[in-house]
User: Fold ABC transporter substrate-binding protein from Azospirillum lipoferum.
Amino acid sequence: MTIWKALIRGSLRACVCAFVAGSATAALAQDKVTFTASTLSLFNMPVYVADVMGHFTEQKIAPEITVLKTGGSTALAAVLGGNANVYIGAPSSALSAASRGVEAVVIGSVLNEVSIDLVMRKEVAEQAGLTDRTPVADRFRALKGKKIGVTGSGSGSHQVVQYALRSVGLDPERDTTIVFVGGLEELRAALPRLDATVSASPLTEDFVRSGAYLMASGPGGSYEALKGMPTVVLVATKRWASAVPERTTRLLAAIASAQRDIHDRQARIKARDLVYAKYFPQLEKALYDAAWETITPAIPTDPAMPADALRRSIDFLREFSDQKYSVDPDKVYTNAYLPKS
Assistant:
């Protein structure tokens, strides 16, 4: 069994896997907040750090983190239906809900860079003369005539590959062959038959360790026009967020403390190891540590949403997907609940 397959089987072997944080005694005086997500992922790092470092407890929040293997739409539906409180996922989920008249609102940012990487088979990269010093644009140009694996048609990975190709004047349909492979584990198996593929941590680190060439790092900011664009956010209903506004503020204060820990030279090591022990013990520790280092630069130092974040998301989706949102992005996020600095 591969490391990545062990992670997938471990995190998705049940339809719903719940992780209840905090001690029973502390929870007695705390507000329970149920988070939902479609996967157990390092991209949700600040939420896990807020748990293991005791920041939720400090803010009198008793978190329950529920992973729904049936996907992001199901995880969001649980929040919109009142069966959970906060969805950890893509900002497009809030835009989609708002376009249907549902009062979903983004209350904070978790990850501020694209999470998708691009890797190329070692021999293909060598034939193209690519090295660590090759400019990103030239790496993208080297994809001309190549077979590139993505998870599925219209998926986030497909959109990012289209962006990368068009950014250097290539036509995805005419100049390359896009292969729809399936999930990340399927991409691992398919790489020998491809020239390049999308990936994500910790699979990317495993690919590179096995000799693959890292063409582009999403968390590292390789996609110039997409830099600083939140891709994992916290979504709630306006009714829940406003019902007890100081509870929402306390929740974001815990996330902010976690984000500071992640960037603190001393606290980050403790946080990394505690998150590993509770959430990712099935991963090889060295691989996990490498993925943590890769993702850290993409974690914002506070949960505030940039003013143009959702507008940039709408513009990107209009160009690279069938999703054409007409909703006012300024009405789909709020920084009103941020803790006072």
Q: What stands out?
A: The chain has a mean pLDDT of 88.
